[in-house]
Amino acid sequence: MAVESPHQVRTPSCFVPSSPHRDPLHMNTMSSINEPCYGILCHRQYVNRVSNALLGVDDEWSTIGDEEEEVTPSTTPEADQSSKCLLVPTSMEKGPRKSRTGYSLLVLQSCIMSPAQLPPTARRQLSWAGQLSHKTETICCVVDDQTNKNNITGKKRTRSNELEEDEQNDSYLSIINTIAAEIWKELTSNGFDIDKEVLRIDAHPKTINSNSEVCLALQRCAKAEMSCISDSPIKLALSASVVTAVVSVVFTSQKVAFWGIARNKQHFEQLNQRLNDYATKEVAVEATDCKSGLNKSSSCQLSVDIPVSRAYYKLAQVFEDEHLLHKIANLRGINASGKDSIHLLLNHGSGLDVGASPGGWTQVLCNQLCIPTIALDPAVLAKRVNSLEGVTHIRAELNSKEAIAGIAQHVPYSAIVCDACLSNPKALIEKIHEALESVKNSLAESGNKKEVVTFPLCTVFTLKFPHKTTGSVARFIDTMKDALPDYFRRFSTLGGQDNIDVSYKICHLMANSISERTVIAVFQKR
Length: 526
Known about the structure:
This protein is of the alpha/beta class. Helices cover 32% and strands 26% of the residues. It is built from 16 helices and 20 strands. Helix 12 links the parallel strand 14 (350-354) and strand 15. Helix 14 (401-408) crosses helix 15 and helix 15 (425-445) runs parallel beside helix 16. The chain is elongated, with a radius of gyration of 29 Å. The two termini are 36 Å apart. Residues 1-23, 92-100 and 142-159 have low confidence and may be disordered.
């Protein structure tokens, strides 16, 4: 959690315990946030995925050894994570493109990276981000006031709802005025030139007209400080080409606000101009004809690295996971950072992509992991994928004789992946295991002493559930959690060795749909 240095802004002349006949005053405290903190507007379906990535939370790894299963907790305790991730209601949030009712406002403290460093599949789900460096909190207290006592005595408060609404408005106005004074002080202390510079105010949520109120309060502070005649001494604008600095404010409640000031380049070029539509342009996909495998694009000079399908970004994210890369690197004894040595992690075997067409995952295995890759699918493989050095396309059904013979020619395998479209993930994993058992038997019958797999072995399977509702997906995940340990124990026998431990996790990748999850497993010698 962010380290804070409390700094008292204003202290009431008297602070005493609460009483029914005492008027409320506010004690305001401001603290500097010394660790990266951001406010973001994130599509609600991606809230957990994006917040986990920014906070460095890894999914729970389960470990299977012999007949026992052990669950390794996530890298960040749940209680600690909840204190770092604050969710703010945005029922009335709207934007220029579409209604933003589908977006959630978050304040994330102690981030391990900037939102601009997320993969483009995640950044495209963010409509706004602002860096926050301070936290202001209003603490309500009361003081004696004999006059108000006399005025209140005998009066009946019949309009309780109106009184509550007035109190709520007063609470927001109080904290708005307080942060405006703090923002103005921060601006002037950093050499803000009121004659030359132009500010932009980004305040959220919009339900309390926060932008206008913060602008007005800031203008009042500047007018009082500068003794200006004009009611609007500060130049304000929205255009990124005009403003020189941006003030970001997020009200998490009527009494708590996070805020920060960033220069133009820091807020736009280095952050917000890498989100939303800007990020969508980075998610490049050039599809191919499903019958011929030829590029659909009129351009004849497409790079072989351009993904042929959206599915590419699922496996690409898997092999950008520092936790996974570090785990495999340790097992291989590679003393280097995961991403720099990714081509060494699984080069002790081949890669098998089951249900490969049109070839997105084959591209990752071949281009990212740099291992010989067998693409198994009766359908056509994209020509620019099939032409990659090290790619072999077996155009056959999974359990056919042709498939078994073809798979057997390229053993052992250090990576087995599958993103096939089958709504029964248990049946899919069962079929893959049956096919590999057939390969094992075929090798034994031919006198080939090679094993089907080699360790460490990494498997990645997409679990595609038939229903999209939250309850249905949760039930299917529970079903898979019960079934996976048995499947993985059977997979571990394909290497011809006993004493194999399996670590696996079920995660929701940025490119997964609502009804998809991805299970990643690492098999290792004990």
